[in-house]
Amino acid sequence: MADRADAVFAALADPTRRHLVELLAAQPGATATGLAATLPISRQAVAKHLATLDHAGLVNSRRSGRELHFELEPRPLADAAVWIAAVGGEWDGRLGSLRQLLDG
Questions:
Q1: Which CATH topology does 2-73 take?
Q2: Which of 42, 40, 35 is nearest to 61 (CA)?
Q3: Are the C-beta atoms of 45 and 30 separated by less than 8 Å?
C-alpha cells in the first residue's frame, strides 16, 4: 500500500502528468497521439508520462488495432485523498488542542 501511495504522489508531482490525468478524466479512451496533439510535447514524451501513470495504477490501457487507448483509474486518487484527509484531520485535532491550551 505504501509503495502504491509513493508511486501515486510521485506521478502527480509532475504538472504534465497532472494535466494528462485531467485530460483522461474528460476524454476516456484517448490515445497517446491524441493527447500529444493537445500538449506542447512529443508523442514519445506523452507515452513516457503515461507509463509513469500506469506504474502508479492511475491509468488502464486497452489495445484497439495499432493504438493503445487510455482511461483514468480513479481508485488510487481516492486512496491518496483518504490518506490526505486522515493526516489533515490529525493536524486539525492537534491545532484545536493547542488553541484550547492557549485560550484556557
A1: Arc Repressor Mutant, subunit A (1.10.10)
A2: 35
A3: no
